[in-house]
Amino acid sequence: MRAIRVTRLDGPDAVELAEIDEPAGNGVVVDVHAAGAAFPDALLTRGRYQYKPEPPFVLGAEIAGVVRSAPHGARVRAGDRVVGLTMLTGGMADVAVLSPDRVFTLPDNVSFEAGAGLLFNDLTVYFALSVRGRLQRGETVLVHGAAGGIGTSALRLAPVLGASRTIAVVSTEDKGAIATAAGATDVVLAEGFRDAVKELTSGRGVDVVVDPVGGDRFTDSLRSLAPAGRLLVIGFTGGEIPTVKVNRLLLNNIDVVGVGWGAWTLTHPGALAQQWGALEQLLSSGELTPPEPVVYPLEQAGAAVASLENRTAQGKVVVRLRD
Fold first, then answer.
1. Entry's Gene3D superfamilies (predicted)?
2. Which domain holds residue 196?
3. Which of 62, 282, 285, 286 could pair covalently with 36 via S-S, beta carbons 3.0-4.6 A apart?
C-alpha cells in the first residue's frame, strides 16, 4: 500500500511517499479516503513531540474512510463510512487498523475530506468550551489563530454551544476573510488586539479566550478577560510557552485553564464516544456545519504538514488518498 513515511527527523520536507506492507492487527480495518494533518505531525517530523516513535514510521492520527472489516462487538461493521483516531501515527496510508473504541460512524451529509478534518480540532474545541471552559449561553469568546484549524473549529462550534459573539484574532487581512467565513462576529488584527477588544466590548472584556498560539499574546489575553473570565490554553504554535504571574488571576477572579484533550480521553473511559456522539448529532441535524478543509493530494503530504509548521495553513489541512 501507499504510505507517507518519516525516515529521518529533518522536518516535513523529508517525508516520503513509499510502498509498504499493509498493517496487521485485530482492530477495525479501514480503507482510508482522507487523513487529517495536525500540528503534532509537524513536530513528529523533527522528533520534537512528547511521543517520539523511531523512524521509519507512518504519519497521520485522524482518518476518514470505509470499514473493510471489524471485530465482533465493534460499534461499526464492514461497509460503514467512518472517522477514526490512530493516536498518533499510521493514518496517512491506504489502509489503517484502529482500536474499535476510536472508530465512529460518519454522517452521510459529511464528506470524507471534511470528516478527516473534524476529529482533532472539533473534539478538542468541544471539550475545551463545554467541559474546561464552562461556556454559558450569551457569553463572548475570543479566538486566537482564528484562521487555523483550531481557530476555525472554535468559530464554528462556539455559537452552537451558546456563545452570542465570537471575536477572531488574525495576523493578516487575508486570514480575516477565512475567520469571517468560519462564522466570526468580529475580526481584529493580532497587533493591538487588546485595545480592539476593549473597544468592541465597551471595556468589559470577553468571557472566554481560546488560545492555541501562546507566545507574546498571553498577557494581553489575560487583560482582555471580563471578571470571572477563562483563558483556555490549547497549544503553543507561536513557539514560546508563556508564564503567568498568578497575582493577575486575583484581580478579576479569572482562570487560566489547561485543555489537554488527549490526556483527558486516556483517563476518562467513554469520553471519546460521548464527545463524538454530541458532535455527530449536531452534524447530522445541520446545526453544525462541517469544515471546508484545504485538501492536498497524497503526493504533497509533506507540503501539507509544512503549511502547519510555517503557519501558512488556512483552516484545517487534509490529505486525500481516494476520491
1. Medium-chain alcohol dehydrogenases, catalytic domain, NAD(P)-binding Rossmann-like Domain
2. 121-262
3. 62
